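Record type: monomer structure entry
Structure origin: computed from sequence
Chain ID: A
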Amino acid sequence: MLNTRKRPFLFVFPLICLGISIATFSLKSSLLMLLLVVAALWLWAERIDAKSSQYLFCLLILLAGLWLGTLSRSASPLGGDSLSLTGVVLTTRELTNYQRTLVSIPQIQRKLALHLPLDISIRPGEWLEFTGSVEIPTMASNPGEFCYYSYLYSQGVSGFIEPIQVQHTKRISHGRYRVDKIRSYIGENISKYTTNHNLLIALVLGDRQGLDASMRGVWTSLGINHLLAISGMHIGLLASLLFFVLRPIPCRDQIRLGVIGLALLLYVLISGGRPSAWRAWLAVLVVLVGSKKAHIDSLHVWSLVGTTMVLLSPTLVHQIGFQLSLAASGGIVLWAPCIHRFGKLMPSTLFGRIGNFVGSSVFVSIIAQLSVAPLLANYFQQVSLMAPLATLLVLPGIFLLLLGGIALGLLGPIVAPIASLLDKVVIILDSLARWLSAYSVVIPIAPFRLDQLIMWYVGLIGLGYILRANYLFSGQLRYIRFCICSLALVAFLSIPPFIGSPLEVTVIYVGQGDAIYIRTPYNQHILVDGGGDSVYWQLRGRNVGLQCLLPYLEYRGVDQLDLVILTHPHEDHLHGLLAVLEHIPIKKIVDNGETHTTISYGRYLSLIEEKNIPYQRVQDGDTLILRGNIVLEIIHPNHLLTGTSSDLNNNSVVFQLQYQGRSMLFTGDLDYQGQQDLLMRHQPTVDWIKVPHHGSRAAWSSQFYDTVGAIYGVISVGRNSFGHPHPQVLAGLADMGVEVYRTDQDGAVSFYIWNGWLGPRLFSR
């Protein structure tokens, strides 16, 4: 299976991961029937040796992954009643205000997270009795925010408990307890005999909690954090060392290989059992047990290891560490023949061997960076250009510290004299890293869109396969094929933006307020309002702009805004903009010119003047023309209304965005009187509307909604004491057939216009 071309194992892992990723609850019953039908068709096609059997096999694996993902998500939720449970401690981690302890509970066959006080001593392997209610954390409301729900799910954890009471039992899981004792013994030895022990402990045990923020920042800026993860480098180095030590011992090869496998397994458990470590151990295990005579394709080994891991724990697919580890190792394995070919070009002299080592190391690092670039963009929004060179320069020191740290941790006083040497290496390594960080170049990068993600990996994998098969050097026909593929890729990347990229409108969740982000196909960024808190919450230190809006814009890779539109100067639309004006360059800002007496409005005017931001007052009849002939037509106010129930609300800037035959209406907090004034001059017909004033009853007008005839409506709202959105508004919109989305329930809501198609995408569901 691992070396045959008839039924390559290679595609099993990617297909099963894809299936798990797109799993949904609603497919469970129909999916099983479809899975059985495809399985029967595949067996029939295999029996008659039909060519279609290969395609049916791929479809079968994809459906199997979808089924696994569905099963992992469809466990019945635990009730909110108080429960008395007993479980064994798996891991524990100290956080700022509590320690998070993951516990496996046999009686309900689930894992839960306990939030315990910091003063309680807990160790893996101990059994706890506790009482409390299981809570399911809410999902993050905006992209880029930490999602505790997703984090727990990726760990296979069903929820968390803040126990009313907790106590130890006399029972102990001896295996876990002994592993933790060994881990503690190693950590204590390293701490006892060395002065600069935090980096050593991170390298040997994978425990980074002791690293100070300064060192973390330096390693992050250099892009070498992956060296601290227990991965293939650690396992491979330790395997080589064990093989070297055991080789002179007279015994059967099977015994020697068994000892190496068990020793590596123990190290994986001691180091915390992270996905990257398990991946490396399984790969080594496959190589160890494989026949020396049979050629085992490394890509098939990669697929087998990944498949084994997700079959044992489907939620691994959602763990960042698993994704980074498998993507990097897959890229390196795919491009390995090219790296080997590069080495053959070097002469067999001493300098040639040195050049081969340096060049190959840099090549491996570059391939690894390219393989994980979309993941780094999605999770961290930055890529370090210094990573390949920095990895090469610090790697010798890392090897010394890793080997010395393992020896010191296990043997303690026997090898204590090497502690001073290790301290010096740590100092040199830290100085080198800090010196390199002064020259590091970190590029902010926005998360990849789906089409960009597909093209990135199609290009990386496709080129790797072409070079791997030596297509460039094996004949004119294959050379022509490579040129055709290259031209096709260039043609795809040259597709005009209005065809290849959608226009995006995202209503960001900012609590009780408005903030809307617009991104055009021509990479222009527009922000409509900025959310904000009441003065009461501002005095308590809460700032939606700093805590919500700026992180979202950073996540989206927005380094400047082409246009900011303030619909009106109420706090829940204006205050969050202040942080944006302070931290992000803005090409132009517009509002209706209406003044206000608040401190926030005064600061808003001051920032416009301080930053020298071009400013324009807009009214009915003005148009804002964006690149690609995208038009924002201002249709309100014609003049500033006075004497209404709320002049600020009724004078909100209202504009209509038209693109590819679709129309969207942005209404601010336009109340009934403002709507009537607008209808006297315009009868806009749109597909999408931002429901005005957070769904307030004061903004309800059946005539207004009959006129605009929207298909979709979005209510930007949070927890409030005003009764927003009002039941009458919700009922009226439902009667008119408007499909309504609410940020308080759905989180951030994005709508896309692409080649005349308009549709929504929910972030948190």
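Annotation 1: The longest strand covers residues 82-94.
Annotation 2: Residues 78 and 615 are 55 Å apart (CA to CA).
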